[in-house]
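Exercise: predict the fold of this chain.
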Amino acid sequence: MENSRNRIEINPAILVGKPVIKGTRLSVQFIVGLLAHGETIDSIIEEYNYISKEDIQACLLFANDILEDTFFTPLAKSA
């Protein structure tokens, strides 16, 4: 999975520094959003034929790593 981390880049000159699949302008957020809305890996690759299944898996791994490193504080329920 270490190789997957090399597929994502953060560059301030590309999409204002959003994490993207290296060599593209497809953000991790965009790919995860497509999957969340029901698109399949195959349908994404069909539409964006310059990315691979491994690129999409790298997006998911990146998102997982971000959530794993984020501290969440529950908000108190207001009356």
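Check your answer against the key: The helical segments are 2-5, 28-36, 41-47, 53-68.
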